[in-house]
Each structure stands twice: as structure tokens, then as C-alpha cells.
Amino acid sequence: PTLHSGQPYVRLRRFMRILRHVSILGLGLLLCGCSTTITNLTPTQQSRNSSGYYPFEALFHSDQKTIRKDTIQPVVVVGLETYPMQQAPVLKDRWETVVPIPPEKKIINYRFKFDYQYSAIPQRRPGSVLSAPYQLEISDK
What we know:
The protein has helices spanning 2-5, 7-32; strands spanning 36-40, 45-47, 53-62, 73-78, 81-84, 86-87, 94-100, 107-118, 125-130, 134-139. By secondary structure, the chain is of the alpha+beta class. The strands form 2 sheets. Strands 2, 4, 5, 8, 9 and 10 form a 6-stranded mixed sheet that branches. Strands 1-3-7-6 form a 4-stranded antiparallel sheet, with no helix packed on it.
């Protein structure tokens, strides 16, 4: 009788162990299933202009549904300097800015960085994505 009376408890423990493994696996699949891409729309070469300002553009796309779109703050990173980007007026995932480049510079190494917040329990959390490194060549006309 005592062995039989403990059986539901053993079953419950097994069920809880299985449920825990399934939850961990599901969370892992949920986190790994999200992809975020930054597409560089800036040409690799531009002609030197008299203003010294050059346009930089990127496309930001994420399958992560929890990203709060109103919190996205992208920048162009050139060395230790950052230049904030603004959302393009027509395309929702496109971001742009202009960056000052000194006349003596011929090659500019840069990256895009997108900071954002995403919904989580119990409160929002910060997230960030850094692009691959890119290079812009400024050619004299």
C-alpha cells in the first residue's frame, strides 16, 4: 500500500522534470529563432565633395517581435566618434545620416550600431547589434 500511494508523487516529479526540459528547449528555440540583419546601403566609393559631408545609409531588419520600434537608436561608428542616424521618411527600416570626413582622409572604416529596448518580464531590457566593419573610399575627382 505505501509503494502504491507514492506512485502519483513519482509521476508528478517525472512530469515536472520533462516540463522543465521542454521549457528550456522552447526558450532556446525562441531566442535562437530570431534573426537580425544590418544591410549597408552606403556605396563603397564616393567622389570628394566641397561640403565634406557624406551620406551613410543602412537597413535594419529583425524577426524579434519584442523589439520596441520606438526605442531604436542607430549610429554610424567612425573610430571613436558616433553619428546618430534618422529614420528615412518613406521606408520604415531604412536609416540615414551624413558624416563629416576631413579632406585629407581617403579611406574611412566604419560600422553601424543599433541600440534598442525589447519587451521582457518584468520590464524592458536593452539590446544592441553591431554590424560588420565596412570601408568607404573617398576619391578625388
